[in-house]
Amino acid sequence: MEYGGFYLDKPVGNNKFSFDERIVKKIFIPKLVDSKIDDLSMGDKAVFIEVDDGSEYSCMGLKNMYRLVDDNIFPKKNVYVFDNHNHAFYFWCKSLKDGMMKKGMTLVHVDQHKDTREPENYYVDINGIEDVERYTNEVLNVGNFIKPALYHGIFDKLIIIDSDYGLDVDVPDEFVLDIDLDFFSKEMEYINFQKKLDKIREYIKRAKVITIATSPYFIEQERAVSALKLLFVVEK
Questions:
Q1: H or E element at residue 156
Q2: What global pTM score does this model have?
Q3: Coil, strand, or helix at residue 164?
Q4: Helices in the chain by DSSP H: which ranges?
Q5: Which of 9, 12, 79, 206 is the least buried, fewest Cβ under 10 Å from its Cβ?
Q6: Three-class secondary structure of residue 182 per DSSP
């Protein structure tokens, strides 16, 4: 099942941000490939563009979206790594279709941001993967992809971990783990780094489905990938 490998050139989804003010009018949606974690590489196409204080910022992300494959690190797990966080919605629906998760589970969302804004609409057939792709890219953006997942019953409970206190909250036995690597951004350095690693590693061991966003606009990508690799260090 293919996903990605195209441009958004209309003011929809993530391409809607500051569209009328921007010089560059399109962003790239990388394709999904299978890869080992050490083979992740950076891309050279803008995947997120924003205008801030009159300056236009074209953010490069990963070369591809990745389904991580390594029996030593990811046994019987679906682990997806991608740039903009709204793609998590697609991979949740795909994991449902693949039988890797069931509807009505708890979502554990580790992120600097809550990402619970209202989308423009909730019109998507979550059982039709092509419609899910349309909705993910043309309606959803980095800040509004969680409420549709709750609305359509993909999850029945949401636990947001966006603070030091949040890391001390109990999570259920069964859950889907969603990580935004901007949790490791400079703005989040007030949380002890080792505590973050230890807690998220614990979540990773227990979750069968894991979605991970590198969030190009919100954290330097080299810093994000470095944190990602530390999370999956195999203990010897």
A1: strand 155-161
A2: 0.96
A3: coil
A4: 87-97, 129-138, 146-151, 193-206, 221-231
A5: 9
A6: helix
Q: Residues 30, 64: contact at Cβ < 8 Å?
A: yes
Alpha carbon distances (Å) from 100 to 43, 78, 93, 97, 159: 29, 7, 10, 8, 20
Contact (CB, 8 A) for 70 and 127: no
Tokens of 90: 């697609």
- Residue 67 CB neighbour total at 10 angstroms: 18
Token readout for 65 is 């979206």
Query: What pLDDT sits at residue 236?
Result: 40
Give the integer Cα–Cα distance in Å for 129 and 99: 14
The tokens for 180 are: 């935004």
> What number is the average pLDDT over the span 172-188?
96
The three-class DSSP label of residue 202 is helix
Amino acid, res. 136: T
pLDDT of residue 177: 98
Distance CA 31, CA 29 (A): 7
Residue pair 180/160 in contact by the 8 Å Cβ criterion: no
In angstroms, rounded to a whole number, what is the distance separating the alpha carbons of residues 212 and 150? 19
- Amino acid (one-letter) located at 158: L
Q: Looking at this protein, which amino acid is placed at residue 110?
A: V
Contact yes or no for 48/217 (Cβ under 8 A): yes
